[in-house]
Design goal:
heterodimer, A: mainly alpha, MetI-like fold, B: globular
Amino acid sequence: MARTDSSTVTLPAASTERPQWTKKKSQLRIAWGRFYRDKMALLGGIMIVLVAFMAIFAPYLSPHDPYGMDITKRLRPPGTPGYLLGADESGRDILSRLMWGGRISLVTAIVPVIAAAIVSMVIGLVAGYYGGWIDQILMRTLDVFFAFPRIILAIALAAALGSGMISVMLALFAGLIPYISRVAYGAALTTKNLQFVEAARSCGAAGRQIIFHEILPNILAPVIVYSTTLTGLMVILAAGLSFLGLGVAPPQADWGIMLDGGRRVITIAPHVATIPGLLILFVSVAFNLLGDGLRDALDPRLRDASE
Amino acid sequence: MVRYIVQRLLMLIPILLAVSVVIFVMMRILPGDAAVAFAIESPAELEKIRRDLGLDRPIYVQYGIWFWGLLHGDLGRSIQLEKPVLDILLPQFVNTLILAAGSFMLAIVVGWSVGILSATKQYSLADRLAMLVTLFGVSMPAFWLGLVLMWLFAYELRWLPAAGMYSIRGDKTFWELLNHLILPAITTAAVPAAVIARITRSSMLETIRQDYIRTIRAKGLPERAVVFKHALKNAMPPILNITGLQLGFLLGGAIFTEVIFSWPGIGWQLYSSISGRDYPMVQGFVLLTSCCFVLVNFAIDILTTYVDPRVVLE
């Protein structure tokens, strides 16, 4: 997934051989500057904030009760007075359900990514820095999980854990760890052999110090970038699991369940399934834009190498 | 080369073993073991069924028995359908392969040509448009795309059938199948095609920028020869790698397609097995697809070394 407008090549921070660790602040500012100039990435960020805002303030913003059925309003098309996006198969307001559903859908997708990123960084750091048998055990164990297509792994885990929001989150979390760990591990390995780490070591820095002060800051960028891109996929996957009946149980609604409900009435009222799907697409595109933008801003060397 | 292939083949054994352990652990240790699926009320009866299924024995003995059966093609019996799992899955697996093969071909043709076109005409209108479309492609919830396609082409326009592999009354001809395959194949291929297009573009761009391409161009070779004969060849390894991976992901993505279009494959079966808590079926499904995935990855590795012999030397 590489956007290749060549705006970063000439920037000083991108072209210096040795990153300037001492000037932490200016590093961040440079990254922010690059990100801010990247209109598409900024757009992605704004899109996410917008949806998140809508979900967080659903209790105040939603025009109707998301679970309030009104059979007389059944399958009303978008634009019906009071029902901006129409009503679903039970006469519930789709806009309100989207807002409330966002609380479940976004949390289900984002929390596992954050948790998995943290755990993966620990795994990657430990395996990458210490090497030897710890490395072998950790990374070979994770290798096994690459034998499963991601969707299958999530489905198998969610099926084994039983349906519900927590089990979906656990399934996504477990399915993410091998992937993010590999990125963290790779970055840790590369960083470990750089000169400044050697310098720290020769100054007598302890292993823990080197891990947290020298290596960790340098694996953050690739992990954050990769995790952001994965978040979009997790929104889709979480909705997909709900769609298959492995997510939260109705009447509680997330976007996947709304889609599944709409599937049954697609012939007579296509808007019921189309609208939640569009929102999933919207959020997923947003995370991809943001991920690409973060990659170019935080670590221009990563561009073209991802995917 | 032969030595490398044999080496890689031998490496498959521990991988497949580990896969079987993971699947076994997932299905047995996690809550809701198979006996519960029978929904029996009295504890005594539950105990009896546990004993019949061997669930009261130590976990490694259970694994041993299960794995021994596996080697003999015994994946257990479906609780819902009361037939051996493999007998149910195999015929459906053929149907899934038909869908996967169709989608894969579509994804390759579209992905490669869009990627190459975009790379050779970088920053042109076509390139920008292609990148925008593929951005939506890689972000696409396939199950939604399937629903929209079905509504538009099957219900509104009535151009294509909405469900199944063949018409109920029609003959089972190849054209019938092809007609039913179009919408499911597009649905399944959309995301992989976009991913392939993007990686093809970036790999081609990287190659085209290299010095030897400039030399060939300076020699006066026609652009077509430069692109297809020289650039594409060297851009191929990463493209092949990602393309192959997509074949594995197709098997996963096909689940949603099969559910939406009632395609009688293993994903469609999985859907009813999940709702029926038919764990042996779910287990069999996961085992079958992950074995395929492992074998596909193996094939890609071999193919990659064929295209790029440097890999063997490393």
